[in-house]
Amino acid sequence: MASHIVGYPRMGPKRELKFALESFWDGKSSAEDLQKVAADLRASIWKQMANAGIKYIPSNTFSYYDQVLDATATLGAVPQRYGWTGGEIGFDTYFSMARGNATVPAMEMTKWFDTNYHFIVPELGPDVNFTYSSHKAVDEYKEAKALGVDTVPVLVGPVTYLLLSKPAKGVEKTFNLLSLLPKVLAVYKEVIADLKAAGASWIQFDEPTLVLDLESHKLQAFTDAYAELAPALSGLNVLIETYFADVPAAAYKTLTSLNGVTAYGFDLVRGTKTLDLIKGGFPSGKYLFAGVVDGRNIWANDLASSLATLQGLEGIVGKDNLVVSTSSSLLHTAVDLVNETKLDDEIKSWLAFAAQKIVEVNALAKALSGNKDEAFFSANAAAQASRKSSPRVTNEAVQKAAAALKGSDHRRATNVSARLDAQQKKLNLPILPTTTIGSFPQTVELRRVRREFKANKISEEEYVKSIKEEIHKVVQLQEELDIDVLVHGEPERNDMVEYFGEQLSGFAFTVNGWVQSYGSRCVKPPIIYGDVSRPKPMTVFWSSVAQSFTKRPMKGMLTGPVTILNWSFVRNDQPRSETTYQIALAIKDEVEDLEKAGITVIQIDEAALREGLPLRKSEQADYLDWAVHSFRITNVGVQDTTQIHTHMCYSNFNDIIHSIINMDADVITIENSRSDEKLLSVFREGVKYGAGIGPGVYDIHSPRIPPTEEIADRINKMLAVLEKNILWVNPDCGLKTRKYTEVKPALTNMVAAAKLIRNELAK
């Protein structure tokens, strides 16, 4: 019985690629240095899978930024503003598209389906000249082959690539991106020919858009694309891989009828209904790559249950045609549990990171072949039983409190218009008030202080003194810049979710459980293993310290319950909504303690609310209902004069704008500039928004410093669709990834632009 891995984490067990990328970007190392680190990581990954007995090992899943940007480079679809004149695309052009440069902004970045991973959105139009401009796929195949590992090259499928693209600036928004399919396929044929010539026998096309609710003409594009590619693919085994949800019946029919396709990969963890479609009919003689090992969470697989599922499938598709696989790429999990030295043995026995999931896949494949490792399966069964019976998982008081929430709507008694009036009397803010989103640059010195405190190398007194000094510096800077509503800069926090999880019960933490979010940005999601509660206040001390340094309003900074959920590895033994309600009650306690401490502006970030939206439309209303309800629970008890902010970033919010309004926040700050002000279109189309709103005026994920005139122009565009008395001026997101040499001039220009427009309005 064969085994397969959809994809694997790229950063390395100790974030080796992250540090190599940042060193290269800072000019401290060469392109050759970066390429050497990358080659060593790839070699390690391929050998690890080969040694574990995996038959179908992926290549070309490694990326210096993201796989969609890699596809853009392969197709030579570089926007004109980057000045690329042809030839093999190098790091300068590649990273300019991803990050921008001193003169040109980056391309739009958005979430990869419903994950916390991001991709760079292709910008296409009728005049794009697609040319084969990156030979990365064949180069990596040859690289693995030279190491003695025959791999399955992985490409973003041509239809998915176009469906994830957007019309370039200046192209009609109604432009049919699928009309570019023939031009795109011409390049794919060249790539396929190169791979065949290099000796590839399999090729994997990732077509995850097949799990979406697609109209018939989009499904027809898959039929047309693979019919056109069929002659080029002749002699190759072709796998079409889907993941993240059930495949709808119409898409399943389209997929399993594609010309020249050998195998189909399905997510059978998040797509359990797909099993019914397979049972209802599977093409004779084709391979089924059964994704039974979860690629998106860190819980050990229930091997007995998975084996039973696989045995049932074996009777449908045939023993020789069933391949055990992961449900998706392991990119979304941590790398290796071996590196976790501080997790206690009980919790550790419940977990499996990417390296362990490879072993699980192979163990299931061997069991199906009659070579079951009884000791391995027995240990797995014991761990499953331990998790179900452990007293640390359940807190009856928390469960009762969460269950009691369902009888109320939890909406503040006064409408938002009246609340804003009361808040303005107290805060006395100018028109177009300026603020930032929360974090300020995380300097090397600041990271050293936190690291040494965690390692007990400095005392708590020394740590508190250092953090207070950093807060004072950030407050002084904001006052010098004349920002209206201040933040404390979050110097005590390495990560917004990890910080809160460390102070809540029911959470566990890793040392090296890093997961890539975008580019070199890695996060370390906490693990929610049990019922959640707040033993004591989490942020009140630092917010009070910050407020004592200024007479201006100081925002209390919290992460909302839905974002904590979506940016954690979540327990899978109860509905996600139940866990979210528990977190909401903990945050509610914190909000009320902040208010008692005199904090009059409290931001409850829900950056990941849109991210968790189910991919299938039939499931979205239920999610939005409990997600929005959870946010309202957090602040239902505050006074009218306490201003509640929330923040959202890097997703498509236009389709959930009414749910955002239903959150009933006083002010929302929301990413806008990097997505080319797409958010503003909903207001042009007539959506009325009565609360405060701050669409971001500049992109913080680029080192580029926007001039005052550019920011002023953005504010004027906002004023064309939003009332001046509700508009705020702020960056797209927090500033922790930037340097002070970038932040100071950018914020200076932002404040200057706000004052410029205020003066114009006054005239």
- In DSSP terms (H or I, runs of 4 or more residues), the helix count works out at 27
Q: What is the level-2 CATH architecture name of the largest domain? A: Alpha-Beta Barrel
Strand segment tally = 22
Secondary-structure-based class equals: alpha/beta
Q: Mean pLDDT across all residues, rounded? A: 95
Q: Approximately how much beta-strand content do the residues carry?
A: 5-15%
- How is the main sheet built? 8 strands, parallel
Quaternary organisation of the protein chains: single chain
As a whole number of angstroms, the C-alpha radius of gyration is 26 Å
Helical proportion, percent range: 40-55%
Descriptive report:
The protein is of the alpha/beta class. The strands form six sheets. It has an eight-stranded parallel β-sheet with strand order 1-12-11-10-9-8-6-2. Helix 1 (16-25) runs antiparallel to helix 2 (31-51), helix 5 (136-146) runs parallel beside helix 7 (181-198) and helix 17 (444-454) packs antiparallel against helix 18 (460-481). Its cofactor is Zn(2+).
